[in-house]
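Entry 14. Ran structure prediction on the chain below.
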Amino acid sequence: MWRSAFDHFLNGLMTRDRLIVRFADGSTAHYGPDTGQTATLHFKDDTVLRELCLNPVLALGEGYMDQRITFPDLGLLDTLKLLQGNRSTGGFPGWLRGLNLARYHMRRIIQLNRPARAQANVAHHYDISEDFYALFLDADMQYSCAYFPDPNMTLEAAQEAKKAHIIRKLCLRPDDHVLDIGCGWGGMALTLARDHGVRVTGITLSENQLKTARARATQAGLSDKITFRLEDYRETSGTFDRIVSVGMLEHVGVPNYGTYFQRVSDLMAPDGVALVHSIVRSAPPVQHDPFLNKYIFPGGYVPSLSELAGAMENAGLWQTDIEIWRLHYAKTVRHWLKRFNAAQDQIRQMHDDRFIRMFEFYFAICLIAFEDQMQGVYQFQLSNSRTTVPLTRDYLYAKS
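Output, structure tokens:
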């Protein structure tokens, strides 16, 4: 049964390239025209057929992690890119479209992300080990999209450029108090306090990140200017002159966008400025990614712009600037992947090969999302007043 369904699936999908599949019993099948590129999948057991027919991305990821699926010709990334290229022209069978529609409607349950669940979701990924992340991130531990005004910049320089670009959008004043929602390992807060003299309150749900951020502030002699707290944004109180949130909105979840932007509005002073930096789809909403949801970012989701616009409008926020970064995250991930591959001997001292293959698949599908799908990074500059920030973008690019 599943072999027949699989044949139907692949015959409909492969419209411009050829895919050769070697099955566990030694038989081989060819799908697609004899044009374009050719890739090969090798199945070590045929249980993957059912899984691929019902949840192909998750099945490919788990099959690769468990070595039940191998990619002997083009390798993991290029094979997945070939499949994605054919997906853009070919079609999924009716049963899979129905399952994906059901997954789409399940988002509001899966991504409810109440505070206790949100903290558990964050711990799943960010509390693994700092030593592990230090092997592929930049020295400041920026785990979000870097900014490459010069395509030949190092990762360190591009992450510094990202922070500088964001900080210019905050239009800081000497006595400002800045709230950093999702402060990570503290790099943005340290830069704000050290280089711009402002007070910063950083909140995170990761105990590991909190410990490191506090230690970094103490080491830098900035404990009098920076406060880090283990806190959910829904429980934060006070009024802040500036709010920054980098790479956190992807963890909020569809049911909570209204709450998130209302909290930004409520916590921000009348003449305040907020800068929200997030991965966003420039296409209609889809179901959550099943592999990322299960293994990497439980409860996470990349929103479409259409899902965020209403929440910002209902919160009464002025969208004083919206900027879209195309391919900057792809360049960032390629830097991370290069460092990850170079550090595999050290990683094997911390984690097993299945974990390494999990991260390889994670990096691969991220690259495909940013290089081959409608996904980029958006920066929303928000204010409660239309006159708080300059009326043109000239201040962002003024020569020093």
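The radius of gyration is 22 Å. Will compare against last week's run tomorrow.
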